[in-house]
Design brief:
Helix content: 10-25%
Number of strands: 8
Strand order of the largest sheet: 1-8-7-6-5-4-2-3
Length: about 160
């Protein structure tokens, strides 16, 4: 059996939250999905935000879509620092979700209930849910952050 470098890398470092993001974001879960309400604050002119909302809906979230001209005010209100910022900010069960966080990571966080403020995918990396338009894919990390400004890698997505 011939192993490529990516597989050898994964075997060497262990699973540790690294995900092969080649699979589609909107695959149906094998487990029943509980409808969860999420409120998303976004600019009315942002197309990628709408695509991310569609991703959430396909994964069983009930989306309350709030279009606002000042998303930065929402970010400040909920403790999203400049280094964590993206194009939209969502609230779900007391947590903040910043940017193009995959629905699976939101569900994982809601199940684990960690002592954090929320999750972020800083910037707008190509290939994240809602940012698949160009066909380009960049590796990216989902970052957890707490009220003291501490940040940790929650999940890392590699494209191979």
């Amino acid at each position: 059996m011939k192993l490529n470098r990516s597989i050898l890398f994964l075997l060497a470092v262990g699973w540790c939250g690294i995900v092969n993001a080649e699979s589609t974001w909107d695959q149906a879960s094998a487990e029943p999905v509980v409808a969860t309400e999420i409120t998303v604050h976004r600019s009315p002119s942002c197309g990628c935000c709408g695509i991310w909302l569609d991703h959430l809906k396909k994964q069983g979230f009930v989306v309350n879509d709030i279009k606002t001209q000042d998303v930065n005010l929402v970010k400040q209100q909920y403790g999203v620092g400049a280094g964590l910022a993206s194009c939209h900010t969502a609230l779900v069960e007391g947590y903040v979700i910043e940017g193009h966080v995959p629905a699976a990571d939101i569900r994982k966080m809601l199940a684990e209930k960690p002592n954090i403020v929320g999750l972020s995918v800083p910037g707008m990396p190509h290939g994240t849910p809602g940012m698949e338009m160009s066909g380009r894919k960049q590796p990216f990390s989902v970052i957890s952050f707490d009220k003291n400004g501490n940040q940790e890698k929650y999940t890392e997505y590699l494209f191979y």
